[in-house]
């Protein structure tokens, strides 16, 4: 299905998937049977107002494959070298939260930072796909925030643990299908102040090439997420802040920051 928005939501204690219809001020959710990224779009014959539901992360990924150093300006600001091949790491599914859910600032860190990214949602089992066919394996795209405990990353020299904390992978507000990922605008605001602004045309490794590279070694399953890298402008936030990630054609993912419990 092209040019549509798909959500995962809670209504009256039940978690369902839906398709968003209508325009601002008159927006509804058409309830679906199953997860459209995994099961296809199957109508359930019921519609509810969008304002009546609580949006969740639009997908529950089996795995999250993330790329670092995909923008030259971010590489420069971090004082690192450009990788010869895509530099990949994994984030655990337990890090995922949805729109409006709080990012918990862990007690183990003193420098937690935002990283606005385009997130790719896989829609077909993908293994050994060439770049020329890779985008046909994509279900859609959503906004992602690759939250990072930067001090921990600097201390141990690798990203996985610093990016793995619970709540460190906000996704949403929905999945948009039918987008061309070649030149989308990405923005990040903290408390309304613009911190990051770039376009996916600046990727060192475009989306299709990234899918091809990953799938040469790792099978990607429907519902899996690829985080495509963040541009320059990364920086810290604190409890009490609100972080917003916006991508052209998708919308805005907003999350408050709260103190962690441990």
Distance between termini? 43 Å
The topology string of helices and strands comes to EEEHEEEHEEEEEHEEHEEEHEEEE
Content of β-strand: 35-45%
Number of strands: 20
**The first-level CATH class name of the largest domain:** Alpha Beta
Number of domains as seen in the coordinates: 2
- Mind telling me which CATH architecture of the largest domain this is? Alpha-Beta Complex
Using the CA coordinates, give the radius of gyration.
Answer: 17 Å
Helix fraction by DSSP (H/I, runs of at least 4) = 10-25%
Shape: globular
Q: Helical stretch count? A: 5
Spans where pLDDT lies below 50 across 5 or more residues: none
What's the average pLDDT?
95
CATH homologous superfamily heading of the largest domain: Fumarylacetoacetase-like, C-terminal domain
CATH topology label of the largest domain = Fumarylacetoacetate hydrolase, domain 2
What's the short version?
By secondary structure, the protein is mostly beta strands. 12% of the residues lie in helices and 42% in strands. It has 5 helices and 20 strands.
Kindly describe this structure:
The protein has two domains: 51 residues; 196 residues, Fumarylacetoacetate hydrolase, domain 2, CATH 3.90.850. 12% of the residues lie in helices and 42% in strands. The chain is built from five helices and 20 strands. Strands 1, 2, 3, 4, 5, 6, 7, 8, 11, 12, 14 and 17 form a twelve-stranded mixed β-sheet that branches. Strands 9-20-19-15-16 form a five-stranded mixed β-sheet, with no helix packed on it. The longest helix is centred in the last third of the chain and has 9 residues. The radius of gyration is 17 Å and the shape is globular. This is Fumarylacetoacetate hydrolase family protein. It holds the Pfam family FAA_hydrolase. Belongs to the FAH family.
